[in-house]
Amino acid sequence: MDETAGGTSTRLPTPTPAPGDPATVHVIVGSSRARIVLSGEVDADLAADLQEASAHAEATNLPVEIDAHHVTFMDSSGVAFLARLASRSPHTVRVLRAPPTVRFLLEVTRIGELLDVVDDDPGFEVEGSVSAIRPQGPTG
Question: Under a CB-based contact definition with an 8 Å cutoff, are residues 83 and 28 in contact?
Answer without folding.
Answer: no
